[in-house]
Design brief:
The chain has 183 residues and is mainly alpha-helical. It has nine helices and three strands; from the N terminus they run H-H-E-H-H-E-H-H-E-H-H-H.
Length: 183
């Protein structure tokens, strides 16, 4: 149970508190999710990572002339990772209301999208702020990148519906958007 103190409520209990102004200034929570579109590059990163596990430094006398150095592999890794991220599509989503979800579910039924993911794409489309996206485009994207990437959009839509969580710390070692691209 969350402990509420008098100090936490002072601003809301003040005689001059204007609820209408607070509501007018309210914003739905939003989040950006990057969908990786280049699975081939992700595979290349895995290959580089495996090779780096046994690579030797460029000045190591035991390194063969045909073997890439650890430094070369690290640079290649950075280049491929940057290309992978540059090709990602950033989707900006906002929390949807229960009424919007109900409308999306009706549209899914009408369209014959009865499997769980296909139906969820209707709610995702309702949640996307940018880029402007249709359910048909989300189906095409699903075919192109697979369910794993599409699940990131579905999960983010569901998390936004649950409400905001205020971070406990002002920063972390990696941002949540960085973590979402590590699949």
């Amino acid at each position: 149970m969350t402990e509420t103190t008098t100090e936490t409520l002072d601003w809301a209990l003040a005689a001059d508190f204007d609820l209408d102004a607070a509501i007018a200034g309210a914003k739905r929570p939003q989040r950006t999710v990057r969908i990786l579109t280049r699975g081939d590059l992700r595979d290349r990163l895995d290959e580089i990572e495996r090779a780096a596990g046994t690579a030797k430094a460029s000045d190591d006398p035991e390194r063969g002339m045909d073997e890439p150095s650890a430094e070369t592999l690290l640079e290649e890794f950075r280049i491929v990772r940057d290309e992978l991220l540059a090709e990602a599509i950033p989707f900006r989503l906002r929390a949807v209301t229960e009424l919007e979800v109900e409308a999306a579910n009706k549209a899914a039924k009408k369209a014959g999208d009865l499997d769980t993911r296909s139906a969820a794409l209707h709610s995702v489309a309702a949640a996307i702020v940018s880029p402007s996206t249709t359910v048909r485009q989300l189906h095409s994207l699903r075919e192109a990148v697979g369910d794993g990437e599409i699940d990131k959009l579905i999960i983010a839509t569901n998390e936004l519906r649950r409400g905001m969580v205020v971070p406990a710390a002002p920063f972390s070692r990696s941002s949540s958007s960085d973590r979402s691209t590590r699949r």
